[in-house]
Amino acid sequence: MIMTEYFDLKGQVALVTGCSAGLGVQMAKALASQGANIVALARRKERVEAVAQEIHDEFGVETLPVQCDITDTERVNAAVDEVLDHFGRIDILVNNAGTGAVAPAEDITDDQFENEMNIDLFGTFRVARAVAKKAMIPAKYGRVINIASMYGLVGNKVAGSSPYHAAKGGVVNLTRALAAEWGKYKITVNAICPGYFYTDLTRETLDSDFFQANAKTMIPEERYGESGELDTAVIFLASPKSTYVTGVPLPVDGGYTCM
């Protein structure tokens, strides 16, 4: 009986932005578990170096820490060149870096809105543009996975975050646009839309009585996402066998957006 390795990523190179903590590290480890070499990219030099070492020690894959601010076009281009000088290829891009402004819409400042767009939307485009132009289009192969949000698909009454909704909604439709343009190069472009997930930054908020009550009402599974529950989504979309899936926003939200 012949066994097909549907999710074998050995020899491939995955660049993960925002890979200094939280969901970025979790998804990088998921890809490393399937054999992918990992480029951990983030602003915090010491933290990204520690993460790269941790992934290497745990999974035995080759890792490369890269310090980069995704709001700086020159630095993004230089970072992609650094990866190509080291590995010679970038097969998978996980655009995870982001931020979140929380305030009532009427109190959001111009600076807050502009910062959100510059990081979550334009930052996603900057990195995708550089990776596609320098690595994936020449190779005629690539897997781009943009991390949007369920808030890119719906509104919310729990915590005012209109810039975040706007930026992540932009990421969802940017994903469709890039999928349409780059399909001819055998590059797939998809988005994961996570719901509420526990991270070091969200735990206190999610454990508040207010959010716990909201989860019971708004999430069919009546709970938040746990560590590892994004793994299968990112591995599926990164797979060389996922050749006919592109332009898709994939909610991983316990059913939040089905209601």
Automatic annotation (TrEMBL):
Gene Ontology MF annotations: oxidoreductase activity, acting on the CH-OH group of donors, NAD or NADP as acceptor; quinone binding
Any Pfam family the entry gives: adh_short_C2
Alphabetic keyword roster: Oxidoreductase
Transit peptide among keywords: no
Entries under InterPro entries matching the protein: NAD(P)-bd_dom_sf, SDR_fam
Lyase found in the keyword field: no
Domain of life: Bacteria
Coiled-coil annotated residue ranges, if any: none
GO BP term, pick one: fatty acid biosynthetic process
SUPFAM superfamilies xref list: NAD(P)-binding Rossmann-fold domains
Family to which this protein belongs: Belongs to the short-chain dehydrogenases/reductases (SDR) family.
UniProt protein name: 3-oxoacyl-[acyl-carrier protein] reductase
